[in-house]
Amino acid sequence: MADQIRRAHPGRSVTLVGIMQGGWVAAQSLADLLPGSTVLAAAARRGGEGRTDGVELIAAADGLLRAGEPQTGKPLIVVDEVVDSGRTARFFLDHLSHYQPELACLAASDTAAPGPHFAAWTMSDLPALVLPWRVLRDADQTAACLLAAGPLTTAQFDERLRDLGHDIGSDLLEFHLARLAARRRLQREGDRWSLPGGTGTGHQRDL
């Protein structure tokens, strides 16, 4: 994806605007491959009565968050982790339209509207993806995805996560799985974890 951006904007640094939360992680990772680029986070601004009325741009410096602005003259690229329908991306692109933004993502459906200008993967049947930064943040979704094909022991769970590049540790993993079981998001049968109401069937693909 970084190579695609370099080819589109040769010799230029860019402003990467990561959609909170996953796009923020992806944007920071991209910045490591695009020297001189500015990284901002983008979050939906909440209005009255739970409405969303705009986009807030945020810069991070010295561990602190503050309001941020794109640098003049730099191409602006909105970054997200996954673009499926395109609804979330469209919201941010529309609110940043005065910057003439482009869209980048790790994985996209080929029916997404809008489709990304830059993507690591584009596929017709976008699976449920388990992304590194979601493992503990979205522990219930991660568990559901990994258990979709059937029950797993903690050791097997740990092995699957290691396949995805995570080294959480069995004790911490056991703690989080037990918390999910206490919330009835999964269940334990002997030494195996499974989804409530069944062992799970079907197939799964990982990023």
Automatic annotation (TrEMBL):
In terms of Pfam families, this protein maps to:
Pribosyltran
Q: Which InterPro entries match?
A: PRTase-like, PRTase_dom
Q: Which residues form the Phosphoribosyltransferase domain?
A: 2-107
Name the record gives this protein: Phosphoribosyltransferase domain-containing protein
The protein's organism comes out as Streptomyces lonarensis
